[in-house]
User: Which sequence fits this backbone?
């Protein structure tokens, strides 16, 4: 029997649209309700240092009212650690964060930042929060994640998405193999592999077909498509494509 691939929906960019005008519309909590009804398996939010989309008050509301598990994407800083420990989401995904980047540009260097990450991960785990590290699909980073005791990693699929968009078939196949090999390595060593970044209706199925992957986290594309077809239909269509790939 093929395992179900979970869909985590990142609703950050509902808040981006709201923040463009100020006020309280569109409401990220309304997006949470739609995702819950449409077949999403979790809600992802990234509370950035500059609060460019999700704000602290949004996190308060979502944590209090959501029925799905919350995955808090966070930088490895003392401020974000304190926020995570206060709210205790189901999961905390540690991501690299640069002040001027438009979106997360690559995976976390878990190997190079071991000494900085270890105490943060330890405190999150001690609080009962499931820690995920957003990394490149690379054996060195997976080994580092094992040493850091992370139960989950999420592979950055941005390179795959760019190659797909460029029509580089050989590059796409090579990157798919890299993700598949990394997912198999994780499964062999007791780490649950997830994936996300740049996934669309057009490119999701080859990634979704990788059997060891347990979850995809998708946000910007789904919110963008919601402008044309509605968030409910956007989530349902992605759910259908993922299920068909399995």
Assistant:
């Amino acid at each position: 029997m093929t395992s179900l691939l979970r869909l985590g929906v990142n609703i950050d960019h509902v808040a981006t649209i709201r923040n463009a005008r100020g006020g309280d519309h569109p409401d990220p909590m309304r997006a949470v309700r739609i995702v819950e009804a449409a077949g999403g398996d979790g809600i992802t939010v990234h509370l950035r240092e500059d609060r460019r989309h999700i704000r602290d008050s949004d996190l308060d509301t979502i944590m209090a009212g959501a029925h799905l598990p919350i995955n808090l994407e966070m930088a490895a800083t003392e401020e974000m650690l304190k926020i995570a420990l206060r709210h205790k989401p189901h999961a905390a995904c540690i991501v690299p964060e640069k002040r001027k980047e438009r979106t997360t540009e690559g995976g976390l260097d878990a190997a190079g930042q071991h000494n900085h990450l270890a105490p943060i991960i330890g405190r999150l785990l001690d609080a009962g929060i499931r820690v995920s590290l957003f990394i490149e699909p690379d054996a060195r980073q997976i080994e580092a994640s094992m040493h850091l005791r992370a139960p989950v990693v999420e592979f950055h699929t941005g390179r795959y998405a760019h190659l797909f968009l460029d029509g580089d078939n050989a590059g796409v196949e090579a990157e798919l193999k890299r993700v598949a090999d990394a997912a198999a390595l994780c499964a062999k060593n007791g780490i649950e592999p997830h994936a996300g970044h740049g996934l669309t209706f057009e490119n999701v199925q080859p990634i979704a077909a990788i059997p060891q992957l347990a979850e995809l986290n998708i946000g910007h594309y789904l919110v963008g498509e919601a402008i044309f077809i509605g968030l409910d239909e956007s989530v349902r269509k992605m759910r259908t494509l993922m299920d068909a790939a399995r």
Remarks:
- Strands lie at 6-10, 42-46, 70-74, 91-94, 130-135, 152-156, 192-196, 215-218.
